[in-house]
Design goal:
Blueprint (H helix, E strand, L loop, with lengths): L4 H4 L11 E3 L6 E6 L5 E6 L3 E2 L6 E2 L9 E6 L2 E7 L5 E6 L4 E2 L6 E2 L9 E3 L6 E6 L5 E6 L4 E2 L6 E2 L9 E3 L6 E6 L5 E6 L4 E2 L6 E2 L9 E3 L6 E6 L5 E6 L4 E2 L6 E4 L7 E6 L2 E7 L5 E6 L8 E2 L9 E6 L2 E7 L5 E6 L8 E2 L7
Antiparallel strand pairs: 1-2, 2-3, 3-4, 3-5, 6-7, 7-8, 8-9, 8-10, 11-12, 12-13, 13-14, 13-15, 16-17, 17-18, 18-19, 18-20, 21-22, 22-23, 23-24, 23-25, 26-27, 27-28, 28-29, 30-31, 31-32, 32-33
Length: 351
């Protein structure tokens, strides 16, 4: 998606995500990628890679952008993607089979111009967001019985954005949304269980000038951390501590680096953050917050042509995915120390 003028002056970003990855249990990973035929492919880890180390399961579909996946409970996965007709489509795993069929999808309506964003804040609850062709943010939800506001209807949350929204939840019935406006500032909206704030279609300005879509993560109740790439290609950070935005309402702290991809952020425990991004040498770089200080940027090697995707399934466990120059998926993990090198998981994926 086209960014505003300020962003156009920065280094070109590798906005294509490597994959969508989700974990619904300790020792379980599910990874999804978009093939060169624009179909969806799936791989899983349950102690070994399935269907094989370099093999992938075909799940059908024809998508215009990388789908997203989310889990609301053990053995449950929901996948969303934008079709070539710009509608939202949905597929799910119920523990026994893919629905509505192995390669089938249900249509959820809408007309979208960005990748979808999906979160879950409770069992059998899903919230999905996308950017409409009017550049406003649209919302749909699953409450365990039906899609709201209807099977193919969407709620307009307002705003005018140049990137897909980021969504995060720090507790039941709580959602925080972030997007980059046409002035390249960060904007914020929240659901408190009864209403959208600051209003049904209003957003609060959080300042900054950004060159990438936002990334948001939460590591405890009433705590939010938001990241974006500035026009100097450095990483910038802002946080909510339950009372106020830090370092100020519209201020951001620079975390340095020179990144050519949007960041990927994950928290594997309270007061712990891990950030990944691709550098100008196409290596993967890593930075972390340990509760008292930020670590420096460490090089993790590899040669990547996509933004990273990161997931955590336990304390002190991280799994990182990126696309190599051969369009295959590569993986590296942290389990208290880094795995020896990047492993090739095969596939040929669409950039």
């Amino acid at each position: 998606m086209r960014l505003g003028k300020a962003a156009e002056n920065a280094l070109p970003l590798l906005n294509q995500l490597a994959a969508s990855a989700v974990s619904w249990s300790t020792g379980r990973l599910d990874v999804f990628g978009l093939g060169t035929n624009n179909g969806l492919y799936h791989k899983w880890w349950n102690g070994s890679w399935g269907p094989s180390t370099t093999g992938w399961e075909y799940l059908g579909g024809v998508f215009s952008a990388e789908p997203t996946s989310v889990s609301w409970g053990p053995n449950r996965i929901d996948v969303f993607g934008i079709g070539t007709d710009n509608q939202m489509y949905h597929k799910y795993w119920n523990g026994q089979a893919w629905g509505p069929s192995q390669t089938g999808y249900e249509a959820l309506g809408g007309v979208f111009s960005s990748e979808p964003t999906a979160i879950s804040w409770a069992e059998n609850r899903l919230d999905i967001f996308g950017l409409g062709t009017d550049n406003a943010c649209y919302h749909k939800w699953w409450n365990g019985q039906a899609w709201g506001p209807s099977q193919t209807g969407w709620e307009n949350l307002g705003g005018v954005f140049v990137s897909q929204p980021a969504a995060v939840s720090w507790g039941a019935n709580r959602i925080d949304l972030f997007g980059i406006g046409t002035d390249n500032q960060m904007y914020h909206k929240w659901w408190d269980g009864s209403r959208w704030g600051p209003s049904a279609t209003g957003w609060e300005a959080l300042g900054g000038v950004f060159n990438s879509f936002p990334v948001a993560v939460s590591w405890s109740e009433n705590r939010l951390d938001i990241f974006g790439i500035g026009t100097n290609n450095a990483l910038f950070h802002k946080w909510w501590n339950g009372q106020a935005w830090g370092p100020s309402q519209t201020g951001w702290e620079s975390l340095g680096g020179v990144l050519t991809s949007p960041p990927s952020a994950v928290a594997w425990g309270p007061n712990r953050l891990d950030i990944f991004g691709t550098g100008t040498d196409n290596q993967m770089y890593h930075k972390w917050w340990d509760g008292s200080r930020w670590g420096g940027w460490e090089a993790l090697g590899g040669v990547f042509t996509s933004a990273p995707t990161t997931v955590s399934w336990a304390n002190n466990r991280l799994d990182i995915f990126g696309l190599g120059t051969n369009n295959a998926m590569y993986h590296r993990y942290w389990n208290g120390q880094w795995g020896a090198n990047w492993e090739n998981l095969g596939g040929v994926f669409n950039h």
